[in-house]
Amino acid sequence: MTGKRIAIRLVVNGENVAADVAPRQHLADFLRETLGLTGTHIGCEHGVCGACGVRLEGLVVRSCLTLAVQADGARVETIEGVSDSGEIADLQSAFEARNALQCGYCTPGMLLSAQELLTLHPQPDRETIRDYLSGNYCRCTGYQAIVDAVEATAAARAGASR
Amino acid sequence: MKAAAFDYVRADSLGQALQLLAERGDGARLLAGGQSLVPALNLRLAAADLLVDISGLEGLRFIEPHGDGVRIGALTRHADIARSAWLVERCPLLGAAIAHVAHPAIRNRGTFGGSLAQADPAAELPACMLALDASIVAAGPSGERRIRAIDFFTGVYETALRPGEVLTSVEIANLNEQRRFGFAELARRRGDFAIAGLAVAGDARNGALSGLRLAFFGVADRPVLAPACAAALEGRAVTPTTLEAARAALDDDLDPAGDAHATGAMRKHLAGVLLERALAEALRSRGSA
């Protein structure tokens, strides 16, 4: 019999979690269905759309291309975690102010990717922003407003840190 | 879609992974970064009875000097390569290529060795290995062996790896002061697989390139060298005349097939466009020769 369930322990948004998972279950389904963290969205389920982005050990990854069992012992942060902590409150406000979302389906993944970019490159030009977000599909906005929001956040953070 | 059921073992050592592959045969698949295998499982284009997860084998995650070159462990993440200023300085070709390997979230998890073992004909890193004349190191039940890149990629998703072998590292020699590199590709969207691409390595002498290795990708069932084109450029200054002759020589080297993304004729045309761009980069890099 294949698919024997495996016990995992991980830290999700700062809380310890333990569960038995089927090896084939990916991390996105585990977060959504087992933990009820439905802010992580599932679009294509094969790594193309970027809606399922979460942080694993501090790095943004596709949770549809990561098995839940692979997250055993790891630290995971979802959009709920970074929203509650206030880490990206300014970025979220900029998205709202510039209409950088309409249906909102891509937004959790988009925000996590944008935050990673701003951490690595605090002053990105528009080309760099577009490159970094190339793996996150948005079918509503045409991206212009998203790039505007990320650019505005970068400028505001640079001003604030002066 | 969801993957069909499989068993899972997180390998604690390379020896354990080799043993599991030997015991379980074709039903066992290695899982490293999972950025090619997991989508294939999700789409049910691939199946496995057992996934042997080697991603935790930190001993296979390294970038280190090796003679006059470098050695890169198979489990080095794409993002590790981009972040290694030392490696990118030694081998600018990898720095240039890695920026085109999928998207940041994929690069955070996907592995160097995984991309080579996957052997997608439109992928960047296999072509770089060909341009660099790299040796691919494989461990098997009877020990280790080295396979030259030119012999490693044998077809669409096909390599010279034998059942039960694990790709463990790559050795790149000859990264001396004279080496010059160029990289260019065309894709619909940044990070997508290339419609056509080119990795170039050669030695700079008197403003020209010699010992040129031109490795095209996305134009055949595997990355391919273009020896006739390289011969037309050997030791010659790149001028409109030599470039035209080199482009014409591509007819002897490439016969790309058409698909939904581009016709064969378009790919051949793009190969000539990329040639000019990659050569310009090679002649520009590390100051003037």
Structure description:
The complex is a heterodimer of chains A (162) and B (289). Chain A is an alpha+beta fold and 162 residues long. Chain A folds into two domains: 77 residues, Beta-grasp domain (Ubiquitin-like (UB roll), Roll), CATH 3.10.20; 73 residues, DNA polymerase, domain 1. Helices cover 38% and strands 15% of the residues of chain A. Chain A has six helices and five strands. A five-stranded mixed beta sheet of chain A has the order 2-1-5-3-4. In chain A, helix 3 crosses helix 6. The longest helix of chain A has 17 residues. The N and C termini of chain A lie far apart (61 Å). In chain B, the strands form four sheets. In chain B, strands 4-5-10-6-7 form a five-stranded antiparallel beta sheet. Chain B has a four-stranded antiparallel beta sheet with strand order 11-12-13-14. A three-stranded parallel beta sheet of chain B has the order 1-3-2, with helices on one face. The longest helix of chain B is centred in the last third of the chain and has 21 residues. Chain B has three domains: 46 residues, Uridine Diphospho-n-acetylenolpyruvylglucosamine Reductase, domain 2 (2-Layer Sandwich); 112 residues, Uridine Diphospho-n-acetylenolpyruvylglucosamine Reductase, domain 3; 104 residues, CO dehydrogenase flavoprotein, C-terminal domain (Enolase-like, domain 1, 2-Layer Sandwich), CATH 3.30.390.50. By secondary structure, chain B is of the alpha+beta class. Helix content of chain B is 35%, strand content 26%. Chain B is globular, with a radius of gyration of 19 Å. At the A-B interface, strand 4, helix 4 and helix 5 of A face strand 1, helix 2, strand 3 and helix 6 of B.
